[in-house]
Amino acid sequence: MRLSVAIVNWNTSALLAACLRSLRRFESDARTRSEGAPSYSLEIIVVDNASADFDETAFRAEFPDVTLIRNTENTGYAHANNQALKIATGDYVLLLNPDTEVTEGALPTLLDFMQSHKHAAAAGPKLLRPNGEIDRSVRTFPYPGPIAWEYLGLSKLFPKSRVFGAYRMTWFGYDAVAEVDQPMGSALILNKEAVRDVGEMDEGFPIFFNEVDWLYRAKQNGWEVYFVPNAVVIHHGASSTKQVKRRTMIRESHKSLLRFYTKHFRGRISAPVYYFTVACIRISMLLRG
User: Fold this and answer.
1) Fold of the domain spanning 2-136+172-242
2) Crossing angle for the helix pair 77-87 and 210-220, nearest 10 degrees?
3) Would you say 218 and 225 are in contact if contact means Cβ atoms under 8 Å apart?
4) Residue 93 to residue 90: CA distance in whole angstroms
5) Burial class of 99 by CB neighbour count within 10 A (0 to 12, 13 to 18, 19+)
6) 67, 44 in Cβ contact below 8 A?
7) 237 phi/psi in degrees, rounded to 5
8) Are residues 101 and 233 in contact, defined by beta-carbon separation less than 8 angstroms?
């Protein structure tokens, strides 16, 4: 069974190198598997979005087996992932941010899980910060109610409420396998069969909500999505986006959320609910962005 790993890099080349070195553990993980367990092979694809800090000569010297695509401009996360997905030959494709490092056994655990859950379009591992804290990486889809409570501040007032804390799933324990809506795209394994069924990422979401949109479409097509805590990935966090002004990123996130609403909910939910939620998002954009 073949696993493809797709990594989109933008000005995080030192972290990218650490990520790729961590992937080498996969080879030893595969060698130490018990007799009769499936054998695995690994393909790594890096798409570099015109990084200023990228040394191609040094990269190719250290990682000669990695397939490298170098874009002449920053084409966005969704487009770069689509470039990788189009050439990936694996049965499964792990979308991995360059500011992550896989831990021992993480990849075989994800592959075993996907093999035993044929209706799973995707699964997310447990993400930990470098200090060992859980990176709260699982959310529900941004349905009108949860988003309204989020932007009205009710989720902060009642963080343990399953109603008001619904969007960020503030009660979620991160200690058991669970079917979920959207694990964070920083580390997300996709079933290639589901990719063929659902289609590529919508490049109208260049930075934010592209994986949310894809997972939503997958669920609409009858696929399942899971959180798998026994697979652990270290996540340094926001290493690309923090290179851009925070206000710019907040505004881009809100714009993508508004596009998500227009695409999936306009005309499908009652007009008052739709426009009230949109108003909440726009007010939050004005206040924060």
Assistant:
1) Spore Coat Polysaccharide Biosynthesis Protein SpsA; Chain A (3.90.550)
2) 50
3) yes
4) 6
5) buried
6) yes
7) 95, 125
8) yes
Task: Indicate the pTM of the whole model.
Answer: 0.92
Residue indicated by tokens 């035993």: 116
Task: Name the one residue in this structure whose structure tokens are 């989020």.
Answer: 150
Distance of CA 260 to the CA centre of its chain: 16
Centroid of chain to Cα 206? 13
* Dist. CA 126–CA 233, nearest whole Å: 6
Q: Which residues contact 169 (CB under 8 A, 6 or more apart)?
A: 136, 138, 139, 140, 180
Token pair of 80 as six digits: 């770069």
- Which of 201, 199, 244, 195 lies closest to 74 in space, CA to CA? 244
Token duo for residue 73: 């401009």
Q: Residue-wise pLDDT tens for the chain (289 aa)?
A: 789 999 999 999 999 999 999 999 876 676 566 555 667 889 999 999 999 999 999 999 999 999 999 999 999 999 999 999 999 999 999 999 999 999 999 999 999 999 999 999 999 999 999 999 999 999 999 998 888 888 788 888 888 889 998 999 988 999 999 999 999 999 999 999 999 999 999 999 998 999 999 999 999 999 999 999 999 999 998 655 555 566 778 888 889 999 999 999 998 889 988 888 888 888 877 777 5
